[in-house]
Design a protein that fits this description.
With 287 residues, this protein is of the alpha+beta class. It has a four-stranded mixed β-sheet. The longest helix has 17 residues.
């Protein structure tokens, strides 16, 4: 596919260039022959004034997901985006926030000495909060961490990300910022975050992994479907321990007595396991 695109690169419209870049980045396709950083970026520079604001953001987002930062292209694209003066909807704001945060973290020289006209655009990255509603499995994740005698916090935010379970390393307080591994970030990976053919992480998840690593958090991905299909809490404790013990010591401890039919619906429609977890939280056993 990359070879075919390269052969016809001069025939592609700005829209096609943006969609190709975003497609490669979103599915985390390998760019071994340098298509995105070379011919495609060159073609985009040549027709930069032909892009709409929406397509400029799509182009830059695709390159960002792929980890490619061509300074000349990024600067021209941002200048053109500002010149066009289109704000766009919330989804475009989210993509722009991802572009700006990624550049600041992975290629800071790109934004060094940014002209005043960029400040409004760069500032928008601060106002986009991640959408991370509480899920039913978060309480049980905290319960599993308790059972392994590790300090854990569910739905902990780091930059633009919220991780399902945050586990600080025992010596994290003694580490300088950005020096060494500060924490483990457990993420229950949805099916939509992986390629159905290869099982590999798609672009946004790989980007999350890269970013967390740069901020000192080691990403641990567990398949959400596989996690939920485990037969009981004990099996989930085993699965979590298998991942955590590679990085820090764990020590099993017993859980308070759970209802005999934990997990079954109660008469009033509640869940006894959920009630037990809430009771643990109220007594601060889960931190």
């Amino acid at each position: 596919l990359a070879a075919r695109i390269r052969e016809r690169i001069e025939r592609h419209s700005p829209l096609n260039l943006a969609l190709i870049a975003h497609g490669f980045g979103k599915v985390s396709a390998r760019d071994d022959d340098g298509l995105l950083e070379g011919p495609l970026a060159d073609a985009a520079v040549d027709v930069i004034t032909g892009f709409t604001p929406k397509h400029l953001v799509i182009l830059l987002d695709g390159l960002t997901l792929a980890g490619i930062y061509r300074e000349d292209l990024f600067r021209l694209a941002l200048d053109e985006y500002i010149r066009l003066g289109s704000v766009g909807a919330q989804k475009r704001h989210q993509m722009l926030a991802r572009i700006v945060f990624s550049a600041a973290l992975e290629h800071p020289t790109l934004l060094a000495g940014a002209p005043p006209a960029w400040q409004t655009v760069l500032g928008r990255a601060k106002f986009v909060k991640p959408h991370a509603p509480e899920r039913p499995y978060h309480g049980e994740l905290a319960l599993c961490a308790y059972a392994l005698s590790v300090t854990g916090q569910t739905q902990k935010r780091k930059g633009p990300y919220v991780v399902d379970l945050y586990v600080p390393m025992p010596d994290a307080e003694n580490q300088a910022e950005g020096d060494g591994l500060a924490a483990l970030a457990v993420h229950l990976v949805a099916d939509a975050e992986t390629c159905p053919l290869t099982g590999e992480y798609l672009g946004p998840t790989r980007l999350r992994q890269r970013h967390l690593a740069r901020m000192g958090w080691f990403y641990i991905g567990l398949g959400r479907r596989e996690w939920l299909e485990l037969p009981d809490t004990g099996a989930r404790i085993d699965a979590l321990e298998a991942q955590l013990r590679r990085h820090l010591p764990t020590r099993r401890r017993g859980l308070p007595q759970l209802p005999a039919h934990a997990g079954e619906a109660t008469a009033d429609g509640g869940d006894e396991a959920a009630e037990a977890i809430r009771a643990l939280e109220e007594t601060k056993l889960l931190g």
